[in-house]
Amino acid sequence: MKVLEMYEPAMCCQTGICGPTVDPQLLEISGIYDHINKSGNCEAKRYNLSQDTQAFVDNGTAIDLIHKNGKKILPITLIDGEVVKTGAYPSVEEFQEFSGVDLSDISSQ
């Protein structure tokens, strides 16, 4: 089973979809992650800098990229430990390609 990991900037909560104004992109990302995890074909994990600091420390690749490039490198997306995208969230199509999970019923914004 593939493992998709995303190392994200600091957010107010685990998913970033709380508070009075919700970022529609983060809402879409949460839906995509739920869909991928429910598929049983890929395990999708998210870590944000304020909630999951230890995950950044434990992942040598993520912490090295941040040390070399600063926080602008976030989010960092990995598949099976390999970096596939940095500096922006993947599109629905990229998530589909990375995870191997059919996301055709999710529209990209």
Q: What is the topological layout?
A:
Layout: E1 2-8, H1 24-39, E2 42-48, H2 53-58, H3 60-69, E3 76-79, E4 82-86, H4 92-99
Parallel strand pairs: 1-2
Antiparallel strand pairs: 1-3, 3-4
Order of helices and strands: EHEHHEEH
Helical content class? 25-40%
Percent range for β-strand residues: 15-25%
Task: Measure the end-to-end span.
Answer: 28 Å
Number of strands: 4
State the helix count.
4
Model regions low in confidence, pLDDT < 50 over at least 5 residues: none
Which structural class matches the secondary elements?
alpha+beta
Largest sheet: 4 strands, mixed
Protein name: Arsenite efflux transporter metallochaperone ArsD
Organism: Atopococcus tabaci
GO molecular function: DNA binding
Pfam families: ArsD
What does this structure look like?
By secondary structure, the chain is α+β, with helices and mostly antiparallel strands. The protein has a domain at 10-69 and 89-104. It is built from four helices and four strands. The protein has helices at 24-39, 53-58, 60-69, 92-99; strands at residues 2-8, 42-48, 76-79, 82-86. A four-stranded mixed β-sheet has the order 2-1-3-4. It is globular. GO terms for molecular function: DNA binding. Pfam families: ArsD. This is Arsenite efflux transporter metallochaperone ArsD. InterPro entries: Arsenical-R_ArsD.
